[in-house]
Amino acid sequence: MSESSGLNTFTLNQTSAQMSACHIPDKLMASIQKLFVILCCGAALTVASNVVSIAAHAQEKTTPKNTDNAVNNAISNADVATVPNNLPSSNSEGTMLAQPIVEGRVLFKTSPEKNPSFGLMTEQSSNKPANARAQIGETPLNFPPFGSGTNNEAAPPANIWERIRSGYGMADIDSAQFTAQLRFYGNKPQFIARVSERSGPYLYHVVAQLEKRKMPLELALLPFVESAFNVNAKSTAKALGMWQFIPSTGRLYDLQQNAFFDERKDVIASTDAAINYLSKLYAQFGDWHLALAAYNCGEGCIGRAISRNLKAGKGITFTDLKIPRETQAYVPKLLAIKTIIASPERFGVHLPVLENQPYFEKIVQEKDLDISLAAKFADIPLDEFKILNPQFNRPIITAGTTLLLPIDKVETFLAQSRVYTGQLSSWTALVLSTPQRLIDLASKLKIDPINLALANNLAPNAKLRGGSTLVVPKDVKNGVSMNDIPAAMIRNATLQLVAEQKKVDKSKKSKSSKLKKSSKSSKSNKASKSSKSNTAKHPATHKAKLKAVHKT
Fold first, then answer.
1. Strand-strand pairing, 436-437 and 463-464
2. How confident is the model at residue 31 (pLDDT cuts 50, 70, 90)?
């Protein structure tokens, strides 16, 4: 086509003439002409030119008999690999990449480090082991037809379950434990559905945070194992919340714990801490199975197990280690749940429809606010408010605290709070200088002891140690402060019962009494043994004594 023609199309005869100049064999020429007939659009010019270039280059290296194979070899020997459906077909500058066409599928080479959309763990430093990276499978990438003018980027997942599945990045374990756990959870479809429903308010946030850190998205299912997505779950080891942090580990990861709130139950704070902890464990062990095992039984437990195996010349993968029975089942539990979520219909599970969009929005409360009033401002039931904000231990949200609201209730909350003219908080706090019974304090302040006990999660007859912080109703008659509770008082707030100390003393006394009893019993046993031995040695004397006793 000449530049002066001003046309944007090629005639078939003009194209054939140009191809003939390249000495293209007749068989290949017929194939190219068929391609022109099929691709009758503006983009056909570019495709034909690329094919001509490939054929001409192949002709220089091969004989005319092998010209048909030259085009196939040019395609098969190209840098072809497969990528997930959510990657675009352009480089960082937005330029279209050269992409061979194979049976209607467009494929190109890429890597997880350069494309974080894989949802796999991206290596942040070069010192992490290469074997910890997940392998990429072969998945075709289907682009829109040429000349359609549509965006080549795949549409976002329709729901949160599809998003999680697309980000799976952990290897499975072929073990008896995995089979057992898959059978166990597979036989409980109602449990899986119920916990999935309970996860609704939190799952989008967890998935989004994991994606930001380039971590495997099946980790979003870990609360299935930890707490069944119960934000108020508490274990016998005093682990608390959706991610089950014990007090010491919670403090290590900056989760505040005081009389007013416990961030181990805070949805945002605990999720952030859990992801930080899991990232740290993965960096330490270089394997997600070992990282999860350490999350369950502690990094020291896994570290010692690895050391033992290294000394014995054994393997150090998860299935090689001698670890507690609970931990042996812990990782297979997550992998079993991952398998069920991947194919719920196979196990008869009906997952709830959870949209791939945020459920809540966070707001920083500038002044003390009663929890009941906050729920009223948002026009939601108090129980629903507490599902999103389980961290509060007292009936008050202190100033500077973050609270969560359903995303469609934020404007309602703000509008209601702006027009409200009453008292925002009916509670304040005081610190006891000496030990005191709760019922005596209520009498002194002239308030109902039952309400005071409920507000502080105590029994009415509880005796508190000096230094304990209590919330009490605001009342001018009581002489307590009407201002917001000071931040320093909140930060250092504790609540200790004298009864707890008594229990310790009683346990010590019981131990000492048991020791005394055991010593007495041992002495009596010795005496009885000695008497028996004397009887055996002098049976006649013993009988005479018995007769004398009988006569008297």
1. antiparallel
2. low
Burial of 254 (0-12, 13-18, 19+ CB in 10 A): exposed
Q: Which two tokens stand for residue 489?
A: 């008082």
Q: Annotated catalytic sites, by residue? A: 226
Q: How far apart are the first and last CA of the chain?
A: 142
Three-class secondary structure of residue 499 per DSSP? helix
| Six token digits for residue 322 | 């001698």
Give the bridge partners for 471, in sequence order: 429
- DSSP annotation of 396 reads E
- Residue 117 near residue 84, CB atoms below 8 Å: yes
What stretch of H or E contains 364? strand 360-365
Torsion sign (Cα): 383, 389, 390, 394: negative
**In the chain, what is the greatest distance between 2 CA atoms, to the nearest angstrom?**
147
Sign of CA dihedral 182, 188, 193, 195: negative
Nearest to 282 by CA among 341, 357, 219, 342: 219
Residue 259 in tokens: 């009389």
Q: What angle do CA 525, 531, 537 make, to 5 degrees?
A: 140
Phi-psi region of 359 (alpha: psi -120 to 50; beta: other; left: phi over 0): alpha
- Ranking 179-183, 355-359, 514-518 by mean pLDDT, the lowest is 514-518
pLDDT computed for residue 189 by the predictor:
97
* Phi/psi at 304 (5° precision): -65, -40
Report yes or no: 374 and 413 within 8 Å, Cβ to Cβ: yes
Long-range contacts of 144-152 (CB under 8 A, 24+ apart): 146/39, 146/41, 146/43, 146/44, 146/47, 147/41, 147/42, 147/43, 152/88, 152/89, 152/90
**DSSP string across 223-248:** HHHHTTT-TT-B-TT--BTTTTB-HH
CB 202 within 8 A of CB 354: no
Which of 181-195, 461-475, 494-508 shows the lowest mean pLDDT across its residues?
494-508
The type of residue at 188 is K
pTM score of the predicted model: 0.64
10 Å CB burial of residue 212 (0-12, 13-18, 19+) is exposed
Gyration radius of the chain's alpha carbons? 37
Give the C-alpha separation, 165 to 142, whole Å: 19
